[in-house]
Amino acid sequence: MSARIGVITFPGTLDDVDAARAVRLSGAEAIELWHGDDDLKGVDAVVVPGGFSYGDYLRAGAIAKFAPVMRSVVDAAGKGMPVLGICNGFQVLCESGLLPGALTRNEGLHFICRDQWLKVENNTTAWTSRFDAGAEILVPLKSGEGRYVASDAKLEELKGEGRIVFSYAGGNPNASQLDIAGICSANNRVVGLMPHPEHATEALTGPSDDGLGLFYSVLDTVLANV
């Protein structure tokens, strides 16, 4: 049986094609999901990819949370469906309330585009089980609003509950609090991160193929529940 993983497209989404390719490279079936359609088409997991949904008007991800498809995603996530938000997708998940905190302008107000080392802090999520805890992976980072912030109490909660999934290694590029590059929900099923694992799936075109680990992980998660 092949897992069916949905990839959402909003107006302004840039990385849906790459995310779908990563899904296929992992051995799963990529299912196109449209922002204006609340039908998730029976998928087993959802990827909210990067880009500039709705032009990032008002605030990155602030409009996308009202899309019909996101109402269905929020409902499905509440029932345990694995959801991954990448870059703008991470912003959408925070705006939708599926993950806490917010992503704000990078320190220095510059757009950052570079290959970035990440440390895997939590390998027990639906999207990170293929990694060793403490492993370092190399994936591209490209964002202008990638600085993760939250209240002191929420940061303490995330740290204490092991919900920091990825941290920046070798220097914090955007001054994210606690060097946070990615976090997860309390049930470990929803993960958001700013760097782009879907751009690190083949050694020929990416800095590595480390990003495939996230997609292999959710494939394991889905097939284990069949």
From TrEMBL:
Catalytic activity entry: N(2)-formyl-N(1)-(5-phospho-beta-D-ribosyl)glycinamide + L-glutamine + ATP + H2O = 2-formamido-N(1)-(5-O-phospho-beta-D-ribosyl)acetamidine + L-glutamate + ADP + phosphate + H(+); L-glutamine + H2O = L-glutamate + NH4(+)
Keyword hit for Transcription regulation: no
Keywords, in A-Z order: ATP-binding, Cytoplasm, Glutamine amidotransferase, Hydrolase, Ligase, Nucleotide-binding, Purine biosynthesis
Compartment(s) where it occurs, according to its Swiss-Prot or TrEMBL record: Cytoplasm
GO annotation (BP), single: 'de novo' IMP biosynthetic process
UniProt keyword annotation of Repressor present: no
InterPro entries, alphabetized: Class_I_gatase-like, PRibForGlyAmidine_synth_PurQ
Main location: cytoplasm
EC number: 6.3.5.3, 3.5.1.2
Gene3D superfamilies: 3.40.50.880
SMART domains listed in its UniProt record: GATase_5 (SM01211)
CDD domains linked: GATase1_FGAR_AT
Subunit structure: Part of the FGAM synthase complex composed of 1 PurL, 1 PurQ and 2 PurS subunits.
NCBIfam families the UniProt entry points to: FGAM_synth_I, PRK03619.1
Function statement: Part of the phosphoribosylformylglycinamidine synthase complex involved in the purines biosynthetic pathway. Catalyzes the ATP-dependent conversion of formylglycinamide ribonucleotide (FGAR) and glutamine to yield formylglycinamidine ribonucleotide (FGAM) and glutamate. The FGAM synthase complex is composed of three subunits. PurQ produces an ammonia molecule by converting glutamine to glutamate. PurL transfers the ammonia molecule to FGAR to form FGAM in an ATP-dependent manner.
Protein name: Phosphoribosylformylglycinamidine synthase subunit PurQ
Organism: Gordonia effusa NBRC 100432
